[in-house]
Structures are given as C-alpha cells and as structure tokens.
Amino acid sequence: MLIDFENLPDDSRVWVYQANRKLSDDEVAEITELTNDFLTKWTAHGAELEAGLEIKYNRFIVIGLNQANASASGCSIDASVHFIQSLQEKFDVDLLDKMNVTFYSGEYIAYKPLADFRKMAKEKSVSKNTVVFNNLVNTKAEYLENWEVPATESWHNRFLS
Question: How many structural domains is the chain composed of?
Fold first, then answer.
C-alpha cells in the first residue's frame, strides 16, 4: 500500500539508494511512477506493505516501510532489490554500489569512489566538516536527523585525520 513518505512513522525502516549521477527531471518523474507502482503491489507473505517514496536532489531514491502492520521478509526485500536492479538497467545508472561516497563540494553534490574520497581526505580536499550523505541510516528518524551530516558524525570519519 502506497502512502506519502511524510506520513510514515519515524520508526519506519528506510533504504537509501544513491545514483552515480544526477537524474534528469524526466527520469525522476518516470522513476517515481515506476516505484510508486511497485510499492502499491509490494507484499510480504501476502500482506500489503505500507511504504512510501522520496527522491532527493535528483540523486537519491529513499524507500520507507512502516513495519507496524507488516515487516519486510527476505522475499519482499529480494523483490525490492530486483526492482532497483531493473531501474539501474532501464536508466543506465548505478544505484547499488555502496563503495562510493556522496558529499557536498561547495553547493554541488559530488560522487566519488571510496578510494578517491580517502585520497581527498589525505590531501585535505575534504575535511571533518564536509557534509556527507550517510546512506547507512536504518529508520526514517535517522534519515531525517543523521543522513546529511558533517563527516565527523558519520562512518566517513575514519578516513579523516
């Protein structure tokens, strides 16, 4: 069952998929339509899942799931990953590579392989105050409060001296 992301409870589970490039407005519109269609039909052991979608900065697909009524099962999580894989193929974009870092570079959002981010940290091109996107958040509350944070408040801190 599709609901507005804003109406999901704060303890809802979230998955953040970052794109390796900025998506066009047309792509965002189509991805929104396809994802809403998927979420409308998403089930776990026959039970409807109450889920919502948010696309941020034409770069992040955020799916939230209210687990109060029904939790995601292994099969339903597999279905969501297969759906994300279909988006990757259709739009020629990488959404599942967790070994990349997205962060603000001035007013722009940069996307770099982890190795490049480490190198930038050593060269002081990024600092403890660089705002990074912590895609490891697990709940809507964490997403709202701890997703865009200075690198010192994220797992990225280990690369900064």
Answer: 2
Compute the half-sphere exposure of residue 42: CA atoms within 13 Å on the CB side of its CA.
Answer: 34
Amino acid at 113: P
Last residue of one domain, picked from the residues 59, 91, 123: 91
As given in the structure block, the two tokens for residue 125 are: 């091109």
- In terms of residue numbers, what domain contains 21? 5-91
| CA 117/CA 120 separation, integer angstroms | 5
Q: Do residues 64 and 142 make contact, with C-beta atoms less than 8 angstroms apart? A: no
- Integer distance in angstroms from the first to the last C-alpha of the chain? 46
pLDDT tens digits for range 113-155: 999 999 999 999 999 999 999 999 999 999 999 999 999 999 8
Give the separation between CA 35 and CA 87, rounded to whole angstroms: 9
Q: Could you tell me which residues are beta bridge partners of residue 51?
A: 2, 65
**Angstrom distance (rounded) from CA 44 to CA 159:** 39
Domain termination residue (choose one: 49, 69, 91): 91
pLDDT digits over 41-99, tens only? 998 888 889 999 999 999 999 999 999 888 888 889 999 999 999 999 999 999 998 88
